[in-house]
Design a protein that fits this description.
It is a single chain. The protein has helices spanning 2-8, 14-22, 25-56. Helix content is 79%, strand content 0%. It contains three helices and no strands. The chain is rod-shaped, with a radius of gyration of 24 Å.
């Protein structure tokens, strides 16, 4: 039982190690950053449009 637990505790992530050694991890990080920046800019523009529509539809007192 003890030897099975030792095999289960493999801490090395082979894909991440391979990407790091080839320098491709930076490509992955840049892609994630681009996607997040795109999503955030879309959400901010959507928020601006919604605020504009809300201001136009406010009841006049």
């Amino acid at each position: 039982m003890a030897t099975m637990q030792l095999f289960a505790q493999n801490n090395g992530v082979e894909m991440a190690d391979a990407l790091r050694s080839n320098g491709k991890i930076y490509v992955v990080v840049i892609c994630i950053v681009i996607i997040l920046v795109g999503l955030l800019s879309y959400l901010f523009s959507l928020d601006k449009r919604l605020k504009k529509i809300e201001k136009e539809n406010l009841p006049k007192n």
